[in-house]
């Protein structure tokens, strides 16, 4: 029987009492490890996390907690090779895609370690200046932010078992809030291993970092009013979470990142082969194939001027035709598998649904897989769809197929393009592709501001940044991650802005002698 991964809560390693769920290699089909959370006394364990881990973290300054994050980076770097092997086996990703997850996580923790240093020896954060409430300033009000006295329950999606853990955990730990992470079952191995390595290294106080692998049953029931809930996953699950008594009745603060039908927009004036045209083509192909299209930020809708529809279809298809798909252990493979056969079936069904209203411009699924059995491997080659009448097919604007799939759409003018983007009902990211001259820059800036109301992030690419930009789908810790509407309405990262979620804002009204002593910066 495969190894059973242990849960960790409040300084204790705990085995579930059930048979567990087996995790499989999505390419070879081999059984890897098991996870199980049956029989855990979650209310008791969570209370120990709050009392033990929370108290220890809050006793430290931001600078000291930044030191903890720096120590975590060292642990993760020392074990990186093991993480790469787990990612290949459990997620079916090629090395470059594993790096996006693993190295992206390590970089994010490192960024928050440096940001924490800038906060110095404070234990609370000032929020604005003193506001006078009486003549002569004899009585006033000052807002402060203090770390919440609860825990942060982080429920993550299957596509980023490493980055998903640390992009949530790093700001929480820096804020002084203990973390309980619940990874998606299908790819929980990497998350559990990282938590295990950090705990065994002894770099964190007991109870500061915790992991539950397996069923999520009972997790929300154990939450209390000062706890936090951060969720990445489907909009349907997010709706259930918002209705849970922990949120609806106990006012647990919740942050949601859900479905997103993101767009890439080629600005007017481009021509086939122009710099901006080629930048769009390259980025669309990368977004469709990186992590096998399993990114919440991936480009799902590609908008181009009407006259360029055919040229864009041909150029993107030509790039996709070069993508080799199969076993990531083979050096000639450029795109690995989806995370499971269940995801394979869901993506195939989603493609068929979109094909009912769109034409198929490129379908790589006819090519043979490399070193992989198509009856076993969860591999789906890239599929580019298209429609010449995007106004007529609402399905294309609201359906996210979570795999290597995108839909090409023509627009008449920029107003039409903006209207099409808006039909996504709120997205995580939109990218704009244009030239560098002043007229183009004016249009790019105006369009970016217009689309900012619909997105958490607008990514503008011109030839000047062709070799420098971080990528449409790459989430950088310095920038906001989240989006309005169907994207969940949440906010993560954004530098020190991420700490806001983990703090409680309060106004202290007092004489200047008291207010001046609230924070070191006063």
From TrEMBL:
Residues 55-445 form the Aldehyde dehydrogenase domain. Gene3D superfamilies: Aldehyde Dehydrogenase, Chain A, domain 1, Aldehyde Dehydrogenase, Chain A, domain 2. Keywords: Oxidoreductase. SUPFAM superfamilies: ALDH-like. One of its GO terms (molecular function) is oxidoreductase activity, acting on the aldehyde or oxo group of donors, NAD or NADP as acceptor. InterPro entries: Ald_DH/histidinol_DH, Ald_DH_C, Ald_DH_N, Aldehyde_DH_dom. PANTHER family: ALDEHYDE DEHYDROGENASE B-RELATED. This is Aldehyde dehydrogenase. It comes from Sphaerotilus natans subsp. natans DSM 6575.
């Amino acid at each position: 029987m495969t190894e059973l991964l242990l849960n960790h809560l409040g300084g204790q390693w705990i085995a579930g009492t059930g048979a567990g769920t087996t995790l499989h290699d999505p390419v070879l089909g081999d059984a890897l490890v098991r996870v199980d959370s049956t029989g855990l006394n979650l209310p008791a364990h969570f209370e120990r996390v709050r009392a033990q881990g929370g108290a220890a973290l809050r006793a430290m300054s931001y600078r000291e907690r930044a030191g903890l994050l720096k120590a975590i980076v060292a642990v993760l770097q020392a074990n990186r090779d093991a993480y790469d092997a787990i990612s290949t086996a459990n997620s079916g990703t090629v090395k470059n895609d594993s790096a996006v997850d693993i190295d992206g996580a390590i970089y994010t923790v490192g960024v928050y370690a440096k940001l924490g240093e800038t906060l110095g020896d404070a234990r609370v954060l000032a929020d604005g200046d003193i506001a006078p409430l009486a003549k002569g300033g004899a009585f006033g009000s000052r807002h402060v932010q203090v770390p919440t006295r609860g825990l942060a329950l982080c429920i993550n999606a299957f596509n980023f078992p490493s980055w998903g853990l640390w992009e949530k955990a790093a700001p929480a730990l820096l804020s002084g809030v203990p973390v309980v992470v619940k990874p998606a079952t299908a790819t929980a191995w990497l998350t559990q291993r990282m938590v295990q390595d950090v705990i065994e290294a002894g770099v964190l106080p007991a109870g500061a970092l915790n992991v539950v692998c397996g069923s999520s049953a009972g997790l929300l029931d154990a939450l209390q009013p000062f706890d936090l809930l951060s969720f990445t996953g489907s909009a349907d699950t997010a709706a259930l979470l918002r209705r849970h008594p922990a949120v609806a009745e106990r006012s647990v603060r919740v942050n949601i990142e859900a479905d997103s039908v993101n767009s890439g927009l080629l600005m007017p004036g481009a021509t086939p082969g122009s710099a901006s045209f080629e930048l769009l083509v390259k980025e669309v192909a990368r977004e469709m194939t990186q992590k096998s299209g399993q990114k919440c930020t991936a480009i799902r809708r590609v908008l181009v001027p009407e006259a360029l529809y055919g040229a864009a279809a041909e150029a993107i298809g030509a790039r996709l035709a070069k993508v080799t798909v199969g076993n990531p252990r083979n050096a000639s493979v450029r795109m690995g598998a989806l995370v499971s056969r269940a995801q394979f079936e869901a993506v195939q069904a989603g493609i068929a649904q979109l094909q009912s209203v769109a034409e198929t411009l490129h379908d790589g699924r006819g090519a043979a897989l490399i070193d992989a059995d198509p009856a076993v491997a969860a591999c789906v080659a890239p599929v580019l769809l298209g429609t010449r009448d995007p106004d007529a097919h609402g399905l294309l604007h609201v359906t996210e197929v979570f795999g290597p799939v995108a839909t090409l759409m023509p627009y008449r003018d920029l107003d039409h393009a903006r209207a099409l983007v808006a039909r996504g009902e709120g997205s995580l990211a939109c990218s704009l592709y244009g030239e560098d001259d002043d007229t183009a820059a004016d249009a790019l800036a105006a369009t970016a501001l217009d689309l900012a109301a619909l997105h958490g992030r607008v990514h503008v690419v011109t030839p000047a940044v062709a070799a420098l930009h971080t990528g449409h789908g790459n989430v950088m810790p310095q920038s906001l991650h989240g989006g309005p509407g169907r994207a969940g309405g949440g906010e993560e990262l954004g530098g020190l802005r991420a700490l806001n979620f983990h703090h409680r804002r309060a106004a202290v009204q007092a004489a200047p002698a008291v207010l001046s002593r609230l924070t070191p910066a006063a």
